[in-house]
Specification:
The protein has about 270 residues and is of the alpha+beta class. It has seven helices and seven strands. α1 crosses α6, α2 packs across α4 and α5 runs antiparallel to α6. About 25% of the residues are buried.
Length: about 270
């Protein structure tokens, strides 16, 4: 009996590890697909700081050629702008490299505000092209959640891209995505993404998180399904509600770092 129990336990652990690997592999594939769709937007984000660097370098050269002492301050300003834009380009490239990378990352403390800022920064050019305004209504004290930063960012990017496409499918009305953060209770934080798009019928709100459910002509219908599995693995939950104006709100609830530590301690004691 003991041997049988040990064998069953080992089989279960192998099955869970295999399921986790399959989920991570599919999440990576969908992440690469999403970033491929944003190629023109990301190219625009990188070309913008490069153009600014070139313009400032040319301006600095002209100031130096003039030989006027009064232009020293102008040269300093141009060099400062070059440094700022170079850092911006490097940041975009670094985030892309991280998102394209396929490897398992140990859970870290993830600042929710920084997570949102990074996702918005990556999508900024795409939103400008689509004439969509992003509004941030965030808590002053940014909570920290434990988890895989890349996967959490993938969830947020997927939700924001879906919101953008829902707005693009609407011919009139405001074109706004609003991101809220709030803490409904101690130890939990919620990120809400509300859009003014075409919305989803109330009876179909839960179905959008199913596998192979999509309204896109070229979509796989796996984005929100993988997003839910990622959030579940982080001890959270994700769901959607309709807005009064016809749009959609997606809610992502996660445990804060202190909550996660206390839960881990309780599990260890129970074991």
């Amino acid at each position: 009996m003991i041997s049988g129990l040990l064998l069953a336990c080992a089989r279960q652990q192998r099955a869970e590890a295999q399921a986790r690997r399959q989920r991570d592999d599919l999440a990576h594939a969908l992440r690469v697909t999403a970033l491929s769709e944003l190629t023109s937007s990301l190219a625009h984000q990188i070309s913008q700081p490069l153009s600014a660097i070139l313009s400032n370098a040319q301006a600095a050269s002209r100031f130096l050629e003039s030989g006027q002492p009064a232009d020293v301050e102008e040269v300093g300003g141009a060099l400062s702008d070059i440094e700022t834009e170079a850092r911006h380009a490097a940041l975009v490239i670094d985030r892309l490299r991280t998102l394209f990378r396929k490897e398992h990352l140990e859970p870290v403390r993830v600042d929710v505000k920084m997570l949102i800022d990074d996702a918005v920064r990556l999508l900024r050019a795409a939103m400008l092209i689509g004439r969509i305004e992003i509004r941030l209504v965030l808590m002053e004290a940014a909570p920290v959640v434990p988890g895989d930063r890349v996967q959490l960012e993938q969830v947020l990017l997927n939700v924001l891209m879906n919101a953008s496409e829902a707005i693009g499918a609407r011919n009139d009305g405001p074109r706004v995505i609003t991101i809220f953060t709030r803490q409904p209770q101690a130890g939990r934080v919620i990120i809400e993404v509300a859009d003014t798009g075409i919305g989803v019928k109330a009876a179909e709100l839960e179905n959008i998180f199913g596998h192979f459910v999509t309204t896109k002509s070229k979509g796989l219908g796996m984005g929100l399904a993988i997003s839910r599995s990622i959030i579940d693995a982080h001890g959270g939950r994700i769901w959607a509600t309709g807005n009064s104006d016809g749009g959609l709100s997606v809610h992502i609830e996660l445990p804060c770092a202190s909550e996660a530590r206390s839960q881990a301690g309780a599990t260890a004691k129970a074991a």
